[in-house]
Amino acid sequence: MKMEDIVIVSVDDHVVEPPDMFKGHLPESVEQPRVVETDEGAEIWVWGDTKSINIGLNAVVGRPKNEWGMEPMRFDQVRKATYDVDARVDDMNVNGVFASLCFGTFVKFAGKLFTDRAASDPKNAHRVLQAYNDWHIDEWCAAHPTRFIPLANIPQWDVDLAVEEVKRVEAKGCHAITFPDNPAAVGLPSLHDESWEPLWKICNDLRVVINCHIGTGYQPPYPSMASPIEAWITGMPISIANSAADWITLEAFQRYPDLKMALSEGGIGWVPYLLERADFTNRHHGAWTNKSYGSKKPSEIFREHVITCFIEDDVGLANRHLVGIDNICLEVDYPHSDCLWPTMPEGLWRSLESVPGGIPDAEIDQICYGNAIRHYRFDGVDRFGGREKCTVGALRKLGEGVDVEPVSLKGAAPRGYAPGKVVTSEDIIGQLQR
Questions:
Q1: What pLDDT, in 10s, does the model give residues 116-137?
Q2: pTM, to two decimals
Q3: What is 3-13+93-98+105-400's CATH number?
C-alpha cells in the first residue's frame, strides 16, 4: 500500500460553532447562547451569566506556529473551515481525510455547559441541548452526510431524559454521544453509581458509542506555575489513563456485551502498560480487593469495550496487538494545535512505516477506517462510491486549489507574554483568566 491509497476516518475532530447555529432551531424568545463582542474586541458566547470563549489552541490551523497562543479569538481570526461546513469539507479533502466526528467547542467537549445551566434552569438547558443536537445532526452533518459521523450531547443531570435523548438522536442516525471521562470529577454521580444503569443499557441495546474526550472529567494538573507549558501538553493525552483504569472496572461491561466507550484524543502508546498493570493488580491484589471481572482479565474487558485513537503513535502501532487492533482508530484533531493539517497523511504514513517489519495492508485499512465505520455504524464510504473514491489520493484531487498557505495575524491578538520567552503554565492560565 502507498500513502495515497490510505482511507482516513477521524473519530476526534472539533467544530467551532457558527454564531447563527440556533437560527431555525430555537425561537428568539427562548433564552439561548449568543455571540457578543467584548470591549477588547473578542467574540464570545454568552448564555445568561455564563461566558464561553474560544481559546486560540482550539482553532489554530492555517496560522504560523510561532503565533499560536491561548488568547481569545474572533471568527475572522480563525480559518473559515473551523465553523463553515462546506469549507471544512474542502480542508478535509486537501488533507486526505474522508470522514470526521466533531466534538463541540463552546459547549465543552462533553456538553458541560448544558449541565452547568441545568443547575439553575433545567428546562431551558434541555431545550437548548436538543436544539444544539438538531443543528449538529440536521445541518452540520446532513450538509455532507457521507463525510461526517454525528455526535450528540445528552442531559447528564437527568438519566431518564438522557435515555430519551439517546433514543431520539439514534432515530435520526446518530450512533455516538459525548460523556465525561470521569463524571464524578464534574459533580455528577460516579461511573459506578447505579443511577447510570438505564444509560448503559440503552447504549448497549442501540449500539451507541460513549465518547469520553480528554479533559472532560479528570483535569490533568499543571505541574507548577513555573513549568513550561510543553510539560502539560506532553502529558495531556496520557492523563486519560487514570479514567481508563476506572472504566475497565465498570461492572456494566460484564452485563452488556455491546456497550462501547471511546478514549477520545488519548493516544495508544501507553495502553499496553496500563493493561499489563491492570492484569497484575487483579492477579496480585484481587484476594483482598474483591474485584471480579467474571471469567476474564481486565485487559480482555478493555479490548472488548474500549475504543482508542491516535494521530502519530509509533510505539502504539508497534504494539498494536497488545493495545487491541480491533478497537484502534485514527484522529485528526482538526482544528486544534495537535492537528496535522494539511499533512495528516504524511505524518500518519511516517508513523506506519516506523513499525519494524511493516504493517499488513489489511491491518492498515482496519486501523485507518475499518474499525471506525464498524463501531460507529457509518456507511459513508459505501455511499460515497466505494473505497477507491475515499482515498488520500482521490480526495486530494478534489481538494486541488484549496489555499493552504499560513495566514499571519501578527498584532491582531496579543498573547500577553514576551516573544521568545519560554511559555509557562502561569502564562497560559493568565490568558484563560483574562
A1: 999 999 999 999 999 999 999 9
A2: 0.97
A3: 3.20.20.140
